[in-house]
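Request: Give me one sample?
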Amino acid sequence: MAFRTSNQSSASGSIGRKDLALKLLRFALFFMATAFATVPAHAVSLIRDAEIEQALQQLAKPVLRSAGFGVGRIRILVINDSKLNAFVVDANHVFIHSGLITKLRRPEALQAVIAHELAHIANGHLTRRATNARVAGRVTAIGMALAAAAAIGGNGDAAIGLAAGTSSSAARRFFAHTRAEESSADQSAMRYMASANLDPAAMTDILEIFRGQEALRPGRQDPYARTHPLSQDRLRAVKGYAASYKSRVKPTTPEAQYWYARMSAKLSGFLGNPRYVLRRAESKGNGEIAMLRRAIAYHKTPNLKKALAEMNALLKMRPRDPYYHELKGQVLLEGRQFDAAVSSYKQALALAPREALIEAGLGRALLAQGSAGAAKQALAILIRARSRDPGDPQMLRNLALAHAKNGQNAMASVATAERYAVLGRYDDAVIHAKRASGALPRGSSGWLRAQDVLAAASAAPKGRKGRK
């Protein structure tokens, strides 16, 4: 689908079977370093949307380059949470709450958030936080679901931990930065912004949002204020840095403004009240972003006819935009127009042939058609999607269904076991993995995948293996 929330993680890559034991040991060590108290793994809800993830990568690109990171190394993901927060827990991912993104008002502010989190990675602050997590006492392995995704994808290095709620003391200790770290990250982030010719003063936009938070009791503070301590001295320093770099600033590029507007429209359209979104979009006239907001709001109302009218207008404007074709596919699929949905998803995939989320949407639409031929096509497409994004539970659910429709019940059990493992439901995962192991030839690809699930489940800390 084009936009959905998913209690899951993602990983990619491959390793040899002989390395599995070593990788699983590394998983276990990682869990203990990146786990959080009281927050179940499946409570973490990511927003998976190809268009939003593309927008984030476009916005992050200049900052990544100026910070010395390869453009493809850092993945930026959105957590479906209205609280204002952003954080990193490993050297490959930046997580931003949807609430913070929708609160900001210009692309440079979001780029400043990304730059600040990249600075925590570049400056080595993750090492200290791993120590904090170990000291926090007996921790629960919220990273287990993500490590399971890495295990079934065959990439131990991709295992990461997530936490959407940070109310527990252990989580706060894990995420907490010292004032010295914040000052260091501010300086680095401002340097990254200036080097990319972006306005470093955008950092003050963020700090002003949280001004006065430190005077509140911890339970009333936004997570960002609890994890990124703010002081008047820090705010003054940031303003000073911004003034010193002012001469390097260039106007925001039209490309950055465009992708920021599209991402904001997508988030507000799907997460907001459709009536409010429609009122706001109608006041903005017939521009592209207003049409996008209306299309989503009509889809949510639901009003299929009006949603499709807006989508067709968008596609007339941008006929080769894969994300608009994908969104039209979602509108049609959820409006039970299955044949037309398949057509739209195929057009989207032709324009973005390596996009796993679009592949997963096409597979789902083909399954909805209900024919044996469509089920066969769906299986091939979903297998390819899994190879690129093995930690997507909805894709795994549809993959299991595709295997079953093609008479491959043992492989359906493998995909189901992987889905339960990603969701942190290890008892259920073990049941299906054992069922698959007993039905598949020993040493076959499916049998090996089932063993990976069993190994990941056996590595789960005691008390974390049951259904939540």
